[in-house]
TrEMBL record:
This is GTP:AMP phosphotransferase AK3, mitochondrial. It is found in: Mitochondrion matrix. The keyword Kinase applies. Residues 162-199 are annotated as: LID. Involved in maintaining the homeostasis of cellular nucleotides by catalyzing the interconversion of nucleoside phosphates. Has GTP:AMP phosphotransferase and ITP:AMP phosphotransferase activities. It comes from Lepidothrix coronata (blue-crowned manakin). It comes from the Eukaryota. PANTHER family: NUCLEOTIDE KINASE.
Length: 262
C-alpha cells in the first residue's frame, strides 16, 4: 500500500444521492481529478458501437501515431479494441438490470485508470462499492477520507426520472434542480443530452436494493477505520457548504476563488 502526501478521497451514497453533482463542485473549487466508475463503464459501453466498425483497428493505429504495421504489433492493437468491446457489452448487461459489475473486472478497470492519476489529488465516485473492492483499493493506496451522501431513498426516486446527462463529459442535469440553458442540449458543447437507460423506475429499485445489500457494508468498513464522514439531507445545496468546509480542512492550500457557492 502506498501512502501519498496527496488527497485520496472517495465519495459514496445511494444511486441518485448527488455524487456526480457534488463531485463537479469539488472539482471546480478544489481542482481534484475525478474518476467515476459509472462514467468509465458508460464510456466503454459507448465504445462498443465504434469498435465494431471494420475500420476501428486502423483508427487505433492512427490515434497512437504508429506507422509500423508488423504482424506482432497489429495483434496487440487488435486486442486493445476487442477488450474495450467486451467490457462494454458486459457492463451493459449488468447495468441494464441494475446489478453490480463483478468485482474483479471493476477493480481492474479502476485501478488501471488510477495509475495515471498518481501525481494528483483525486476523488473516486462510485468505487469502491463492495467490501472486496474496498480491500483491493486498500492494497494499492491509503484512502484519506470517505464522503458519504446520506439521502433518503424516497427523495432519490423522484430525482432520477428527471435526470439528463451529457455522455461524453458525464455532466449531469435535472429538469427541475439544474436544467440546461437550452432544453435537451449540453451547456458547454451544444451536443444533445440523453437519459440513462438504468433510470427506469424498476431498474432504480434494483439499484437501491443492490446498494442496501452490497454497498452499505462498505460504509461500515470505512467507519471502523475512522475515515467515514457522512452528510445527511434531501437537498444538495444545503449539504454542499458542509462538504466544502470539511474539504477546506483537507486541502487548505488549494486556491479557492468562489467561496462555497455552487
Ligand atoms: P453510477 O453511474 O455510479 P449510481 O447509481 O451510483 O450510478 P448515479 O445514478 O450516477 O449513481 P449520483 O451520481 O449519486 O447518481 O447522482 P447525480 O447524478 O449527481 O444526481 C442525480 C440527479 O439528481 C441528477 O439529475 C441531479 O441533477 C439531481 N439532483 C442532485 N441534487 C439534487 C437536489 O438537491 N434536488 C433535486 N431535485 N435534484 C437533485 O453506476 C451505474 C451502474 O454502473 C455499475 C452498476 O451497475 C451501477 O448501477 N457500477 C458498478 N458495478 C460494480 N462496482 C462498481 N464500483 C460500480 N460502479 C458502477
Ligand atoms: Mg453519478
Amino acid at each position: 500500500m502506498v501512502v501519498s502526501p496527496l488527497l485520496r478521497a472517495v465519495i459514496m451514497g445511494p444511486p441518485g444521492s448527488g455524487k456526480g453533482t457534488v463531485s463537479a463542485r469539488i472539482i471546480k473549487h478544489f481542482g481534484v481529478k475525478h474518476l467515476s466508475s459509472g462514467d468509465l463503464l458508460r464510456d466503454n459501453m459507448q465504445k462498443k458501437t465504434v469498435a465494431l466498425s471494420e475500420e476501428e483497428p486502423l483508427y487505433y493505429c492512427t490515434f497512437h501515431g504508429l506507422s509500423d504495421r508488423t504482424g506482432i504489433f497489429h495483434c496487440f492493437l487488435l486486442k486493445v479494441v476487442i477488450s474495450c468491446v467486451e467490457v462494454g457489452i458486459l457492463a451493459k448487461s449488468y447495468i441494464d438490470q441494475g446489478r453490480l459489475i463483478p468485482d474483479d473486472i471493476m477493480t481492474q478497470l479502476m485501478l488501471t485508470e488510477l495509475k495515471g492519476l498518481d501525481q494528483y489529488n483525486w476523488l473516486l465516485d462510485g468505487f469502491p462499492r463492495t467490501v472486496a473492492q474496498a480491500e483491493a483499493l486498500d492494497k494499492e493506496c491509503h484512502v484519506d477520507t470517505v464522503i458519504d451522501l446520506d439521502v433518503p431513498f424516497e427523495t432519490i426516486k423522484c430525482r432520477l426520472t428527471a435526470r439528463w446527462i451529457h455522455p461524453a463529459s458525464g455532466r449531469v442535469y435535472n429538469l427541475e434542480f439544474s436544467p440546461p440553458k437550452v432544453q435537451g442540449i449540453d451547456d458547454i458543447t451544444g451536443e444533445p443530452l440523453v437519459q440513462r437507460d438504468d433510470d427506469k423506475p424498476e431498474t432504480v429499485s434494483r439499484r437501491l436494493q443492490a446498494y442496501d445489500a452490497q454497498t452499505k457494508p462498505v460504509l461500515e468498513y470505512y467507519r471502523e477505520k475512522g475515515l467515514l464522514k457522512s452528510f445527511s439531507g434531501t437537498e444538495t445545496n444545503k449539504i454542499w457548504p458542509h462538504i466544502y468546509a470539511f474539504l477546506q480542512t483537507k486541502l487548505p492550500d488549494v486556491s479557492q476563488k468562489n467561496a462555497a457557492t455552487p
